[in-house]
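Journal club side-thread
Mid-discussion, someone asked how the predicted structure for our own chain would compare to the paper's figures. Pasting it here so we can look after the session.
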Amino acid sequence: MIRLLCFVLAVLASPFKSKLRLEAENAVLRHQLNVVRRRLNGRVRLTNHDRWFLIQLYRWFPSILQVLTIIRPETLVRWHRAGFRCYWRWKSLPLGGRPQIDTELRVLIRRMSMENPLWPEGRSDSLLSSARANLRSASLPLS
């Protein structure tokens, strides 16, 4: 009886809803029917495309949570938040650039510049680069 009363109230309130909102609710209901039709062994399997579709509709029309029946509304909100976290984690990744210098090498450059204050700025760097080249040539295997 209560469900019938809710249904009658929903039908009476439907003319006052926006047309886009009604179309979104219809799209969600149709999509849920398609998902239920393709279920395997009694269990509903959602693909990533299904999740993406529902999340996009939720972003545009948060009221679709009222018509979701095959998943809980909390699940949809959790997917949306997980996608948001994933996006910002990807966006915050370092963009690359100059490779980091080893800590030992930085300490050595600093120590050399402190011990030789009269050297020009690039002198310690050029000495280190020539020392690095000597080390590389010494470490190459003889053929």
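Post-session note: Helices lie at 2-13, 19-37, 48-60, 73-91, 103-115, 121-139.
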